[in-house]
Amino acid sequence: MGLMSTPAPLTENALLTPTEARQAFRNGLVSPTSGFSRGYAQANLIIVPRAQAFDVLLFAQRNPKACPILGVLDAGETTGPLLTGGDIRTDVPKYVVYRDGQPIDEPTDVTAYWRDDLVTFMIGCSFTFESALLDGGVPIAHIDQGVNVPMYKTNIPCESAGTMSGPLVVSMRPLPASQVSDAVRITSRYPAVHGAPVHIGNPEELGIESLGRPDFGDPVTVPEGHLPVFWACGVTPQAAVMQSRPSFAIGHAPGHMLITDARDSDYLIP
User: How many CA atoms lie within 13 A of 153 on its CB side?
Assistant: First the structure.
């Protein structure tokens, strides 16, 4: 099926600027961010003490498909060019706090946990290319069904780095078989936000026993004639935190991303 040129209709959330979206989250709105701030890139977060920061950086460098770094805040910094005027401690709709690899809290504000030695990594998110998929006439099930994107731990180990090791995490979008090639072509032009899919078809080849039981996010209905398509996911560093058990870390709640000031087009390869 050829690409459609008519853009998908914009929702109220899609019309929010990044500043407005971050302000809404700071004021207490809790929601998965797929479909927010149309045209602006979203980012995963992994925040660790400076003593672990090099291992995270090396882990990302060795696993760029899952962990493409968009930006890094220095130890103790709470704002930067990707969130001008924002605050990394309050401007994500929901976070996960880990101690020794175990999630201990899912707050909407991590100010109480903040430390001056914390280094923030902002990692590319596949929500960034969803606008391009929609404009190409490719349906996105979790948006249509009003749920969070399903994410799964796989049987594919990432390349370890220092203290960091763990499995590849993937997000899944069921697509009509006739549009899979369109989705591959569109997303391959966004390598900084995971790029083309890592797998199409049989989830068991990734060690996924049931699409109805995602490790993160919500299950989606897979309509007849649709194939499950899997992209590398920026929750991968959090899976590594759970396996490697550093003393402390903060991530975004899966699907609840940082809305950045960067344009989707900033990461588009012509």
Answer: 11
Cα–Cα distance measured from residue 97 to residue 250, given in angstroms and rounded to the nearest whole number: 5
Task: Pick the closest to residue 62 from 168, 196, 208 (CA basis).
Answer: 168
Using alpha carbons, list the distances in angstroms from residue 34 to 131, 145, 163, 217, 265: 10, 12, 32, 12, 17
Q: Helix (H, G, I), strand (E, B), or coil: what is residue 41?
A: strand
CA-nearest of 60, 106, 93, 98 to 232 is: 60
Residue 78: alpha-carbon gap to chain centroid: 20
Query: What is the spatial distance between Cα 235 and Cα 151, in angstroms, rounded to a whole number?
Result: 8
**R_g of the chain, CA atoms, integer Å:** 17
223: amino acid identity, one letter: P
61-80 pLDDT, tens digit per residue, is 999 999 999 999 999 999 99
**pLDDT above 90 covers what percent of the chain?**
91
pTM of the model: 0.91
Residue 114 confidence (pLDDT): 98
Q: pLDDT tens digit string along 147-173? A: 999 999 999 999 999 999 999 999 999
CB atoms < 10 A from the CB of 26, how many? Answer: 17
Question: Does 4 have pLDDT greater than 90?
Answer: no
Q: Are 86 and 37 in contact (CB under 8 A)?
A: no
Residues 6 or more apart whose CB falls under 8 angstroms from that of 230 comprise: 152, 170, 171, 172, 197, 198, 199, 200, 203, 206
Helix/strand number for the chain, H first, E second: 6, 11
Which value, to the nearest 10 degrees, does the dihedral of the CA atoms of residues 201, 38, 3, 232 take?
A: -20
183, 133 contact by CB (below 8 A): yes
Tell me 84's DSSP state.
T
